[in-house]
Write a structure and sequence with these properties.
With about 500 residues, the chain is of the alpha/beta class. The chain is built from 20 helices and 14 strands. The protein has a 6-stranded mixed beta sheet with strand order 8-7-6-9-11-10, with helices on both faces. Strands 3-2-1-4-5 form a 5-stranded mixed beta sheet, with helices on both faces. A 3-stranded mixed beta sheet has the order 12-13-14, with helices on one face. Helix 6 runs parallel beside helix 10 and helix 16 (about 380-390) packs antiparallel against helix 17.
């Protein structure tokens, strides 16, 4: 796979994400470096990045360059955002980065920064239309996405570092300081938001929003360490802002979920986020862990697709995970085919629809990824791996359901366990029935040779006969399927018999 390092020199910190990828096929992040810079705190009214901060920013870029050289990363994409963009000596900073750090820094316009944020959302969420909010250290961008396409976006100097420098003088901050930030943000953005279609989902990205989500997850004991797709309800956001504002900087630094180096700026940034949510009339903020850096990657990941858009976010998400761990396309595609045939023919009994059918197909594609750990107990390893990293395009509940199906594909009775808080009423029964179908399909493909080409179900009163249609010897599959039909039988409350039929 190709490797690329994407450097994002922001107003609060410098980050470098290293990705391995095959265009159009798969990608994964393999490393990340982060250093606090606070470029946005350097410029005063004269808009000049001052000496100490200037030097620190160059040193961060130099460290990133040294890493890339040592790791022999062939492609480096370095960009700078609001702090350098707005500085009177921004071009001087770019020149210094070139001469002293060997980094050819590109200054992104506010429009381009907003566009890349929308591209990241379009390729990592299932939404077609949405508002996209990005709150950084120096600026905040609000963009409109329609038909998975960037329509328009606006950038304002409303980042957490800038708002802290301008308004927060007390520790903890006084209510009047918070109200001043709210009034300032409203003055800047109210006109823009009043022209936007109401009721759109609001997707949020950036370090502040991720930290707010982590704090809330720590508060509620969220069962999985997944941020992408996490919902922060508006009332939860209100409570978080009040809590943060009531604490001193040193007390905030000890909060679970909050990066210590954000403790002094998180209150002002959170007030900006809360005000934006209120002005947008949103009932919740959906977290995106994909942002500017992923947007830059996606341009290279799908260079030939219109708008650099992945054709199907959910399908790619599943395939990307499968290819990362254990890719057996012939076997997994056949298990998927047989699973969906069982689903369609048993529909009169289970009554499920397109959503459950899709989840079953996804689990069939992923069912053997635990083989990357070990054959023994690979169903358990697979369940863990399915929940170990984000699945863009899926809600956390959907991801948990897929994981439980993967965990139930081989033996035993699926149990929700620690994932129970993510599930909805009826999901335990749903998992049992779907996992029963997946398990039977897996054992009808026991030799991994696609000998059983199709299935034909005969439904009777309390009895299910599954005819395995084959053109060649399939005794191993018939025997294995009969031995492993127990979950399907128990879930539907019927007797199950698997017999050989002629294709």
């Amino acid at each position: 796979m190709e490797r690329i390092a994407i450097i994002d020199l922001g107003s609060n910190a410098g980050r470098m994400a290293v990705f391995a990828f095959e265009p159009g096929q798969r990608f994964m992040q393999v490393d990340q470096l982060r250093q606090t810079v606070r470029l946005a705190s350097g410029p005063g009214d004269d808009k000049i990045i001052r000496g100490g901060v200037f030097h620190q920013g160059i040193e961060v870029l130099k460290a990133f360059r040294i890493y890339c050289d040592a790791s022999q990363i062939p492609t480096i994409v370095p960009v700078a955002t609001s702090a350098v963009r707005d500085a009177a000596n921004g071009e001087g900073f770019v020149a210094a980065a070139r001469e002293r750090a060997g980094v050819e820094l590109q200054i992104l316009s506010g429009h381009e920064e907003a566009r890349l944020g929308v591209l990241a959302v379009a390729n990592s969420h299932a939404y077609t239309d949405a508002l996209v909010l990005d709150v950084g250290g120096g600026s905040a961008q609000l963009s409109l996405m329609e038909g998975r396409t960037f329509m328009e976006g606006t950038s304002w100097p409303l980042g957490g570092v800038r708002m802290t420098d301008a308004f927060i003088k007390s520790d903890p901050p006084k209510p009047k300081e918070l109200k001043a930030i709210e009034a300032y943000v409203a003055e800047k953005v109210a006109g823009r938001l009043s022209s936007v279609r109401r009721g759109l989902p609001l997707i949020g990205m950036g370090g502040t929003i991720r930290n707010l989500a982590r704090i809330h997850q720590a508060h509620v004991g969220y069962p999985v360490p997944l941020l992408h797709g996490y919902r922060l309800e508006a009332d939860v956001l209100d409570a978080l802002v009040e809590e943060l504002a009531s604490l001193t900087t040193s007390a905030r630094a000890d909060l679970s979920g909050l990066n210590r180096d954000r403790a002094d700026v998180v209150v002002a940034a959170a007030v900006v986020v809360r005000t934006m949510v209120r002005l947008a009339g949103a009932d919740a903020l959906v977290v995106s862990s994909h942002g500017l850096r992923e947007g830059l990657l996606y341009e290279r990941m799908w260079p030939d697709q219109p708008g650099h858009l992945v054709p199907d976010v959910r399908a790619f998400s599943v395939l990307n995970m499968a290819r990362r761990y254990c890719d057996q396309p012939g076997h997994t595609e056949h298990v998927r085919k047989l699973s969906l045939q069982l689903f369609d023919q048993l529909q009169p009994w289970h009554g499920y629809g397109a959503a459950e059918r899709d989840l079953l197909g996804c689990a069939a594609t992923l069912h053997d990824i635990g083989m990357a750990v070990d054959y023994f107990e690979h169903h358990t390893h697979g369940q863990f791996l399915t929940m170990a990293s984000e699945m863009p395009g899926f809600t956390h509940r959907e991801q948990a359901l897929v994981a439980l199906l993967v965990g139930g594909h081989r033996k035993g009775r699926p149990g929700s366990g620690a994932l129970a808080p993510l599930l909805a009423p009826g999901d335990d029964e749903r998992v049992g029935k779907l996992a029963g179908m997946l398990r039977l399909a897996e054992y009808l493909e026991r030799t991994k040779a696609q000998r059983v080409q199709d299935v034909r179900c005969h439904l009777g009163a309390g009895y299910l006969q599954v005819e395995a249609l084959a053109k060649e010897e399939a005794s191993v599959e018939i025997q294995a399927a009969n031995q492993r039909s127990d979950l399907l039988a128990r879930s539907f409350g019927v007797k199950v018999e698997v017999v050989l039929g002629v294709a």
